[in-house]
Task: structure prediction
Amino acid sequence: MPPPFPWENVTPEDARAFLMAFTQSGAKASTTRRKLASLRTFFRWLSREGKAVHNPFAALHGPRLAKPLPKVLSAEETDRFLAAPLAELERLKREKKPAKREEVFGCLRDSALFESLYSTGCRISEMMALSWRDIDFANGSVIVIGKGSKQRLCILGSRAIEALTRLRRAAEGFVPDGGAAASPVFLGLKGERMTPRDAERRMKKWLAAAELPPDLSPHKLRHSFATHLLDAGADLRSVQEMLGHSSLATTQIYTHVSIERLKDEYTKAHPRA
Result:
């Protein structure tokens, strides 16, 4: 139909038919919602100008936007990343000149930090708040304070326990009372408690060493923790408890990540995918 269009004749049924056709054309949900918002605004203007009596798009709702799936590291990528600080420590030991104590301590601290993050699935803020008294080395567990000041018990794997044991020994000689019960677990090079921003900067260093994308954050280790557990058959409610999620729906997004990974493998391997 050539312009000018009879805008006053457009009905809500016409508007619904247009929205349905646009959606079925393969347009993304975000594109459909943007188009709908533009038409709703256009007809609002037509109404103000007296060129249309009703806004046929006023009562329509666009398709829901899908939540983006969290990025995760594969098990192999996680291994490479977690090995990077100790690999650097070995390199420092092989050099002819003695390594600086700050460099050695930094490698041991970062190894313990990222092993603990991946082992527990903790948020970086929860990990930065830890003191040595919060860790039960004998039972391989740690008590953290999560959102809403809720306490929860997290499990420390054998690799994390080993890394934390090495760190505590190093901390005792690095700063006064560095290994005392009340001392922060993760210290900066001046003896102060590390911040989440400090951890992000250190993570970028080891991502580069492991040849991994530099835009990954400590929170991606939490995503990877949950995804790897579910991939291996862990119970969803157990993972919910470990993550400290109040709602199971929040944890369920990681099942979608696992399904997407399965789909990728299926598409690569199946002759009729």
